[in-house]
Batch of 2 targets.
Target 1
Amino acid sequence: MTNPDMVFSADPRHGLVARSGWEQEEARMVLRDLGWEWAEELHALVPPDDVPQVEAAVQAVAELHLHGHRTGYAVGPYGTMRLGLAHAEQVFTRFVAQETVGGRPDGTSPSGHQTPSQRWSAYGSSAASLENIPSTEPDGPGI
């Protein structure tokens, strides 16, 4: 995705965070109005403590879209994917679930190693879940 106004990602120590370019003051104001606070050490906005992270993030995406801002989410080393309101809850639930299991959203364990079940594809599902998809190739030689 090119140039989203606000990018959501998961920080291993702080949970979900939102970042934007310096010129996106209006987008940051939308989040501040929802109770998100600037965390200087992260250079990012963090959701309010009194609201579950997933709920706060979905509400933030809805408000940003209402105000005409583009949103995205960080997908490890692959860059940023577009984040539509229809998929926001699913994406944020995965981020939070990944953190509570002890892994990191970038697919690494606390030791830094990746396992197939921890790797996330650009489409948001784990690579391990793709291993169970049956092959569409024919069994025998062609005509």
Note: The radius of gyration is 17 Å.
Target 2
Amino acid sequence: MVGEWHILDNIKAIREDKALWSLFEAIVKANVSIKAVLDTKSGLALSQVTTSGRWRVHHTMLEGAFEQPGYVADARLSYFPSEFEEEIRAGRDKLVALLGAKETTK
């Protein structure tokens, strides 16, 4: 889409900016934690997270770009799947409703 900005398309600029590189490092670290949750807890999901495979490809591409910033494969196939976040939120909402819990975070 025109006008969208993607990390994987901007690794060179990110590497040249210390603040952006620190942010990129934090994103990669957060993704490692998300992957660990998916690997160990996805069987507990109330519904399928159909975009988790696309998210995993995206995560692998980000890790590769972090480890070898001079090489980034064609990223168009591995942009962050925005639907992933929507599916996770919908699952959380189902769980909150099922448990009758009050939502404490957004």
Note: The CA atoms of residues 33 and 98 lie 25 Å apart.
